[in-house]
Design goal:
By secondary structure, the protein is of the alpha+beta class. It contains 21 helices and 17 strands.
């Protein structure tokens, strides 16, 4: 075993383990089936294994002391055109499994090489519940089959879609493809695929002497909060089973990242979760800065935190307002939209834009803070504080709202972890995990704030009240930004800062050429793999980026919180009434752009 570790270290230039004792146990037990330990900037151990031991190694990790009990992400990579693969196991494709241990506050990334003539691997749905949708998406995007999956199907793309979009040989631009025409046969085929058949959804038509009723909730219904459909199997008012249908909002965001320069992709990140604004830019920018070894000033870090917290408050206000509206109260949503516009006024005065600023830059910010920003922000914070107290007593303490949400759609911490729940939904079960505290980034470790927690079970009311309390903590963070804004440049003095400082253009022709190339062609980011997670407004959001040493990403994996949150719906709401489902959907806090990407 010791010899095996030394060989692996030698291959990786004396690689330093993040969780040495766990890796040591893995090598001792599985030895020759450990193919390689990869050196990356992901921030955890990355292990390539023989796919034959996948199930055994995941069971081992899930049952050790302080277990890796949380499947954070699962997806694939087309390795065929990747040029920088030194020492990596031979493979045309790979599947990665990102596991988290909440107790250790550590991660492990398991990678399985896949050959083109053997495009299959065992399903892990019996180990991790939330693997179901992740495996479906990986299959439909890459064509990798998961043996033993209970219901492998297309969930993002239309049922009749041909091809696997995230393969490198799949054309990404409409101009590269043949002209589309809707023939009568194709139209009939598409219409036929839309017909509802309970068996296609894994449902029975009825029980002895009685038939179930099937009801569509969505995709055009105000209480599903977007283009989202849930097929309900009902026995009277009772929900026997339900199947969420997603994919209506899919835009191919991960595919687009492979054909946009590192710099030009920034505006796309705002629109992944369109209420989060600059929060969405943060993980993308930080992961690139890791690869490029760019260090930004404290001023940049604080400004990034400030914009993120403004968008967090704005998102939470909309969430609380629509939740109250779903339960029958109309007035608060109009009042909270007024509050949101005041926050957008501050954001616009700083960035020049409102919902989607695309303001963070590789190595800094688009520009510095304007004069008088602190007075504008202070005035806004005073307004919001006063309004929040009114909402608490007039709406959130309302007896009807409490009866419709307290002890409704409950789940415990074990259910939350098994379904991949993050954010306030996880913290409502009493688990204290907020990335800003547990794995601070962009200087969050320098701020004083608390993480609101639930006690044991996460119900609709607890989830809403935690978001309400989080607004006050964000207000406190913003006050610290006003009082402690450091001096310093808004862009890093680094050759890969994009765009470079404009004043350098006027000094000599070399700087002008560099500026032109970085804006038009894009910066050349060193090859490697990087990862950054942040605490988004709806849960943990992250970017896993692979660079092949070019001006565009080789692979960009965007992990969003809303995707696993919707997958959890049947396990929580089956056996409840339709009215409970409305309360539950309002308490999740999701947008479909975040789900479908």
């Amino acid at each position: 075993m010791k010899k095996k570790i030394e060989i692996l270290k030698k291959k990786n230039n004396n690689y330093i383990f993040y969780d040495y004792y766990t890796i040591k146990k893995i090598i001792k037990i599985f030895n020759n089936n450990i193919l390689y330990i990869q050196n990356t900037k992901i921030g955890c151990d990355v292990i390539w294994i023989n796919k034959d031991i996948l199930i055994d190694i995941l069971i081992f990790l899930k049952n050790i002391d302080k277990p890796y009990i949380f499947l954070y992400d699962l997806h694939g990579v087309d390795e065929r055109t990747r040029s920088n693969r030194k020492n990596l196991p031979k493979s045309e494709f790979s599947v990665f499994y990102h596991l988290m241990s909440i107790e250790r506050n550590k991660d492990i990334l398991i990678k399985v090489p896949i050959k083109i003539n053997d495009m299959k691997v065992n399903s892990i749905t019996k180990i991790f519940n939330n693997a179901n949708w992740y495996e479906c998406e990986t299959w439909e995007m890459f064509g990798i089959k998961f043996l033993g999956h209970p219901f492998l199907r297309r969930i993002i793309m239309p049922k009749n879609w041909n091809g696997y979009p995230l393969r490198k040989d799949y054309l990404s631009r409409a101009t590269e493809r043949e002209e589309y025409s809707l023939t009568e046969d194709l139209e009939n085929s598409e219409m036929e695929s839309l017909k509802f058949n309970p068996k296609d959804w894994g449902m029975n038509s009825g029980i002895k002497n009685s038939n179930f009723m099937f009801l569509n909730l969505g995709p055009n219904h105000p209480s599903v909060h977007g283009v989202f459909r849930i097929v309900l199997q009902l026995y009277g008012e009772k929900i026997i089973n339900c199947v969420p249908e997603i994919g209506f909002h899919h835009r191919g965001a991960e595919k687009m990242a492979e054909r946009q320069s590192w710099h030009n992709y920034i505006p796309y990140t705002d629109r992944i979760e369109y209420l989060g604004g600059c929060i969405n830019e943060m993980p993308y920018i930080l992961s690139i800065e890791k690869l490029a070894n760019i260090v930004v000033s404290d001023r940049v870090k604080v400004i990034r935190v400030m914009l993120s917290e403004l968008f967090r408050i704005n998102s939470h206000l909309l969430y609380i307002a629509t939740f109250i509206q779903d339960l029958g109260a109309i007035t608060p949503i109009f009042l909270m939209f007024t509050d949101r516009q005041k926050i957008y006024d501050v954001i616009e005065s700083i960035t020049g834009f409102r919902m989607h600023p695309a303001w963070f830059r590789i190595g800094g910010l688009s520009h510095d803070l304007p004069k008088g920003w602190n007075k504008l922000l202070k005035s806004c914070l005073d307004w919001i504080k006063n309004r929040m107290n009114k909402y608490y007593f007039t709406s959130l303490k309302n007896s009807i709202l409490i009866s419709r949400s307290k002890n409704i759609a409950e789940y415990n911490k074990f259910s939350a972890l098994s379904w991949g729940v993050t954010g306030s939904g996880l913290r409502a079960t009493g688990i204290n995990f907020d990335v800003r505290k547990s794995r601070p980034y962009s200087g969050y470790e320098n701020f004083d704030f608390k993480i609101p927690l639930g006690e044991e079970n996460s119900d609709c009311y607890t989830r809403v009240m935690l978001k309400f309390e989080e607004i006050f903590q964000s207000l406190y963070i913003l006050e610290q930004c006003i009082d402690n804004m450091p001096e310093g440049p808004f862009k890093s003095d680094h050759p890969l800062t994009t765009p470079p400082p404009k004043e350098l253009v006027f000094n000599n022709i070399e700087n002008m050429i560099s500026h032109f190339l970085q804006v038009s062609w894009g910066p050349i980011i060193p090859f490697g793999e990087s990862f950054q997670m942040v605490e988004g407004s709806k849960g943990i959001n992250s970017y896993y980026i692979i660079s092949d040493g070019g001006n565009m990403s080789y692979r960009t994996r965007i992990r969003t919180p809303s995707f696993p949150h919707l997958q959890q719906i049947p396990s929580v709401i089956n056996g409840h009434s339709i009215s409970d489902l409305i309360s539950y959907l309002g308490s999740i806090d999701f947008v479909m752009s975040d789900v479908d990407r």
